[in-house]
Write a structure and sequence with these properties.
Keywords: Membrane, Transmembrane, Transmembrane helix. With 171 residues, this protein is mostly helical. It contains seven helices and no strands. It has one domain.
């Protein structure tokens, strides 16, 4: 339950960041991509929670989908460049330090969920007596990664907003 609260707060921060950086198409496209992955995650979460071991594979898949959306944005924008938004997104696309941080966070989440998947599976077939990583590390690490992702997106949006304010003042 607490983890879901973090996810909903993160989504609210993404929407706030989206409003804040609306004029910067690169940031807007990134945050819209993050919101798309979050929406898919929310839509499939109830199904994933029905699988005690498979949930961690689903979590790895969601992190992988996040990476695909993040790294595949330019290609998708190219393929959809007949639509004005995507044409502008393709033209103005750059990778940033914040995107590198988001990529690293997603990789950490994938690795953490892989370790948990293996550990919970071994626990379920009685090879392990206790799932220490899952019980004492994974859940806290996931919450920390959600918080870090939110702050990275918010900092990206604030930086974009401040830059747009500076650009307007110079004109």
């Amino acid at each position: 339950m607490i983890s879901q609260i973090f996810d909903y707060i993160a989504s609210a921060l993404y929407v706030f960041a989206l409003i804040l950086c609306w004029k910067d198409i690169n940031v807007r496209y990134l945050i819209l991509s993050i919101l798309a992955v979050s929406s898919i995650g929310f839509a499939t979460l109830d199904w994933a929670l029905t699988m005690p071991i498979g949930f961690y594979a689903w979590s790895m898949g969601m992190s992988g989908l996040f990476i695909v959306f993040m790294l595949g944005r330019r290609h998708l924008a190219y393929k959809l460049s007949h639509i004005n938004f995507f044409a502008q997104a393709y033209k103005n696309h750059t990778y940033t330090v914040q995107e590198a941080l988001l990529f690293i966070i997603a990789l950490i989440c994938m690795l953490s969920n892989f370790i948990t998947f293996v550990e919970v599976y071994l626990y379920s077939i009685y090879w392990l007596d206790n799932a220490y990583y899952k019980l004492y590390i994974r859940d806290g690490l996931q919450k920390l990664m959600v918080i870090l992702t939110s702050f990275v997106c918010l900092s990206f949006a604030i930086k974009s907003w401040a830059f747009s304010k500076t650009s307007l003042n110079e004109q």
